[in-house]
Design brief:
The structure holds two protein chains of two kinds. By secondary structure, chain A is of the alpha+beta class. Chain A has two domains: about 5-230, P-loop containing nucleotide triphosphate hydrolases (Rossmann fold), CATH 3.40.50; about 240-325, OB fold (Dihydrolipoamide Acetyltransferase, E2P) (Beta Barrel). Chain A is about 25% helix and about 30% strand. Chain A is globular and about 75 Å long. Chain B contains 13 helices and no strands. Chain B starts with a helix and ends with a helix. Chain B has helices spanning about 1-35, 40, 55-65, 70-100, 105-115, 125-135, 140-165, 170-175, 180-190, 195-210, 215, 225-230, 240-270. In chain B, helix 3 (about 55-65) crosses helix 13, helix 7 runs antiparallel to helix 10 (about 195-210) and helix 10 runs antiparallel to helix 13. Chain B has one domain (about 65-270): MetI-like (MetI-like fold, Orthogonal Bundle). The chains are: A alpha+beta, B mainly alpha. The interface of A and B includes residues 52, 79, 81, 85 and 131 of A.
Chain lengths: ~325, ~280
């Protein structure tokens, strides 16, 4: 079980209020991603759940039980840190065994769990090495192994992939997702990378300045961002957002169109502009279009085969039902 | 050309280092040499350096006149005891200052260090009176306590500096893994800080071993360590330089030998724990 409820939780560091009153429910077995720009309070929120920071006010419940004042270890949660936080003076085996040693689990049971975790994480050959002798990906797996053997009610991940190189990151991302499918345990995952959020989450929590901007499934957030911030944050490349005449035509202060919802043509269209940079990815091409009179740059996704070059005149047509409208407060209209 | 210049500079640096090293070592060397001279050669003018009749008579005289073993034992107990006691107090103190600092932590550290700025003689009178009242005068336990307190600021400072190098996330991981504060300090912090703790231990042992002001003022016979043993040979009327040198050599020999061996230990310790 791993149902976590935050009830009007706040956190202040001295005078600075980092988390204003915040409510959130994380259901058992869910993969929840906290995403937001740096300094949005997502890591602080995770540390509050972990018990590494004390809440200033409010209540945290884990499986219905008040955990607000519980010590981290009593909460039955396991955490994987960004820096892996392995014990450098212990072998991999001892690192993984440490939480079980602390919990007083019998030796033979410890051994059984270490062996099965090592097998699942491809660490069997490295059990007697020290963390310093492992690669970044292997260290990350040791950190995950150390979390698994505790059989926690929920896993907490604090930007676990940001120290890995791009190729390894994609691989580890899949491993963590497979782990979630296999264990079906609640996982809370903090990242600033919206791609990680979109690909991994059952539920995304978008945070800004300690406030929850929106909670929803990746596609909900993509299709119906509740405000301008979420619209700009979710999706890659970013949604084009601009005001002016075209927005007024749609009865809104500002409108937003995703690059993939704009059709480009060399002959005719609603808007026109001049091609700046064309990014060729093979399957797709991203055009950065200038001099449209809408915004400085409008990004458009076109077919990889469309041949346009720098300086070409181009016509753009948004898909009418994919236009997002925002009011003066930046809220979805 | 550039290479020649570097080689030349390297040679100069080496020469300078050796000169400074020998200058620092010279008094010790002179003491050791003098300890093997007769009293007459010891005060010869001009002084003789290496070419004299080497004798060990000073050592036998010193051994006959005083109980070296007892002084040595007292030194070991007082220096070792005050260092270990200091570490027991300082490790938790440095832990809290390094990992859960308050707004006043920096001030406390500075205030602690400021006690070292007061000349020791300034507090001799109150401490002497306290020792009389508590019956601690000329006891090993009394001296151990005083030396522990005298060196505590340095121990805390050194450990604080070493602990600050240890990433806090590792200690948080231990907390998540169910380690109590005791487990965290015992199984995670201390093993990771072994090189730092070892060098702190060594330095404070040496400081306590060589401490002369309190050991001379607060002891008479029973708890007197090697510093008192040396002092007993520096009589104002008789000029027994050779015997004084022999006593000094015997007093510093153990710490010199220990320093030599633990130095190697320390270097190994430093490279051993180098995992970041």
């Amino acid at each position: 079980m791993g149902r976590i409820t935050l009830d009007k939780v706040t956190k202040s560091f001295g005078e600075v209020n980092v988390i204003p009153p915040l409510d959130l429910t994380i259901n058992d077995g869910e993969f929840v991603v906290f995403v937001g720009p740096s300094g949005c309070g997502k890591s602080t929120l995770l540390r509050l759940i972990a018990g590494l920071e004390d809440v200033t006010s409010g209540q945290i419940r884990i499986d219905g039980e008040d955990a607000t004042r519980m010590a981290p270890a009593q909460r039955g949660l396991a955490m994987v840190f960004q820096s892996y936080a392995l014990y450098p003076h212990m072998s991999v085996r001892k690192n993984i065994a440490f939480p079980m040693k602390m919990a007083g689990i019998p030796e033979d049971e410890q051994k059984r769990r270490i062996d099965s975790a090592a097998k699942a994480l491809n660490l069997t050959d490295y059990l007697d090495r020290r963390p310093g002798q492992l690669s970044g990906g292997q260290r990350q797996r040791v950190a995950i192994g150390r979390a698994i053997v505790r059989e926690p009610s929920a896993f907490l991940f604090d930007e676990p992939l940001s120290n890995l190189d791009a190729a390894l990151r994609v691989g580890m991302r899949l491993e963590i997702m497979e782990l979630h499918k296999r264990l079906a345990t609640t996982m809370i995952y903090v990242t600033h990378d919206q791609v990680e959020a979109m690909t991994m989450a059952d539920k995304i929590v978008v945070l800004r300045a300690g406030n929850i901007e929106q909670v929803g499934s990746p596609l909900e957030l993509y299709r119906e961002p509740r405000n301008e911030f979420v619209a700009g944050f979710i999706g890659s490349p970013k949604m084009n957002i601009f005001g002016g005449n075209p927005a007024q035509q749609h009865g809104a202060q500002k409108i937003g169109v995703r690059p993939e919802h704009i059709a480009a043509s060399t002959e005719a269209g609603t808007w026109q502009g001049v091609v700046g940079v064309a990014e060729h990815l093979g399957s797709d091409t991203f055009l950065h279009v200038h001099e449209t009179g809408l915004a400085e740059t409008i990004t458009v996704r076109v077919d990889g085969e469309l041949s346009v070059k720098h300086g070409d005149r181009i016509f753009l047509t948004p898909e009418a039902d994919k236009i997002h409208r925002f009011d003066a407060q930046g809220l979805r209209a | 050309m550039a290479r020649a210049v570097t080689t030349q500079r390297k040679a100069l640096n080496t020469l300078a280092a050796w000169t400074v090293g020998l200058l620092i070592f010279f008094p010790i060397l002179w003491t050791i040499l003098t300890s093997f001279k007769t009293e007459a050669t010891a005060i010869a003018d001009p002084p003789v350096f290496l070419f004299f009749d080497w004798t060990t008579e000073n050592y036998s005289a010193v051994m006959q006149r005083s109980d070296y073993a007892e002084f040595l034992w007292n030194s070991i107990v007082i220096a070792g005891g005050s260092t270990i006691l200091g570490l027991i107090v300082a490790i938790p103190a440095a832990w809290s200052m390094a990992f859960v600092p308050s707004r006043r932590t920096k001030d406390i550290l500075l205030w602690m260090l400021s006690t070292k700025m007061l000349p020791a003689v300034g507090v001799l009178y109150p401490i002497y009176l306290m020792f009389i009242k508590l019956g601690l005068l000329d006891t090993k336990i009394g001296l151990t306590l005083v030396l522990m307190l005298i060196n505590l600021p340095i121990i805390v400072w050194m450990l604080y500096t070493y602990f600050r190098e240890i990433p806090g996330e590792i200690l948080e991981a231990a907390r998540m893994d169910g380690a109590s504060l005791r487990d965290e300090i015992l199984y995670v912090l201390t093993p990771m800080a072994v090189p730092g703790i070892a060098s702190t231990l060594l330095l404070n042992f040496i400081l306590a071993w060589n401490e002369a002001f309190w050991t001379l003022n607060l002891t008479a016979a029973k708890a007197a360590p090697l510093t008192a043993f040396i002092a007993s040979y520096s009589s104002p009327e008789g000029l027994f330089y050779a015997k004084l040198s022999a006593a000094s050599t015997m007093a510093i020999a153990p710490i010199l030998i220990m320093g030599w061996f633990s130095q190697k230990q320390l270097v190994r310790g430093l490279t051993f724990g180098a995992v970041k």
